[in-house]
Please model this.
Amino acid sequence: MRRLRRVKILATLGPASKDSATLGRLFEAGADVFRINMSHASHDAMRERIRMIRALSNHYGREIGILVDLQGPKLRVGEFQDGGVELLPGQSFVLDDDKTPGDSSRVNLPHPEILRALAPGHTVLIDDGKVRLHITQASPKRAVAVVDVAGRVSNRKGVSLPDTEIPVSAMTEKDRSDLDAALEEGVDWIAVSFVQRADDIADVKKIVRGRAMVLAKIEKPQAIARLEEIMEISDALMVARGDLGVEMPLEKVPGLQKRITRMARRLGKPVVVATQMLESMITTPVPTRAEVSDVATAVFEGADAVMLSAESAAGQYPIEAVATMNRIAEEVERDSIYRTVINAQRSAPEQTGADAIAVAARDVAETLDVKAVCAWTSSGSTALRIARERPGPPILALTPKRETARRLALVWGVHAVVTKDADDVDDMSKRACKFANREGMSKEGERIVIVAGVPFGTPGATNMVRIAFTGNES
Model:
């Protein structure tokens, strides 16, 4: 079940993909990591899906990653007397702390901290931006707005505030409960929603304490303004284009996607491109040509993973959506221009021994046309460094830790295998060759490059490159 492509596919689970048979078909179609969205999953549902994924992993003998996506702070208007109102262009409309059902002139905003943070000139978006207002007067209990883009507002519709610094943590009480439950189940990745600042990630990491990797979803203008510091503390990034395209002008999103993808690669952090990638496949068995180009663009940019949301969670064609994304990715990576584009995006390595070794391994691999780059890795950092260089041959990560192998399921080009650590240099070479052959990466007599750290089993000690012939050492 080793993939022939480098980019990974992240598939969201939901009503359309809740049984073990469907999960198996999704995996066979190309899914490498499964996402559980806690906006729609109970703890019991999460535990059952994790149990099915782990059983699937054991059945196929391949480590499958699990990402739990925390809901984050959801802002919503209150309720209306008649279920909703039609707002007209230029009319005045009030958001206040009065819990009385709203009418055509006002509605409750049940978030006192948001009312305190609003200021004249701030934009308020309702229902994914379908209705747009701007604040003209603001006080801690009441904000007066003018309607810029008219439309209907109904009970509990979502609110987005692109200009307002939300004075709350990205993690709510529900998120803390969900996080604790996810960590108890041993999930591999935690995605944090509506990140605004590096402290939002730091708060989650204090709770996680290394039991999972933490991914920051970039979907707010405030996160874009603090991108470098958020990237520095995060283990991975997601370009969450849905909310990002609501809170920022749509035309800015493609450029931001490229910027985030390239910055993440420079830092050696995995990056996922998400939202509406094959949206039409929720209801049709084939995507639009524009959607195919969108997925292809993310692959050409060197994203570590591309993600399906409603397509695999609630759509009518979840298997077809994954299979389609798999075919697109494989075709892009076969294209003659693919390596040219990927290589052109390389940046200078960090001035560390481990990064220098990763670059050297890539150069040796491409100069000698070796069949695989084998990384002995305990924490996964060696494999991540090699993946940052986007070498031509596939990356075989050998690790004694199952959790490391599962986390690496999200990383570009990495095929992870769990095995005991090497005893010495000869054992390192022999078993690297054995696994390269067994996983179908090389044949007897072909060369591979091996990267490791001595002494073995020491995290972050990458300091050796070795060339080996499968069948005998060199």
Observations:
- The two ends are 30 Å apart (CA to CA).
- The mean pLDDT is 95.
- Residues 353-473 form a domain with the Pyruvate Kinase; Chain: A, domain 1 fold (CATH 3.40.1380.20).
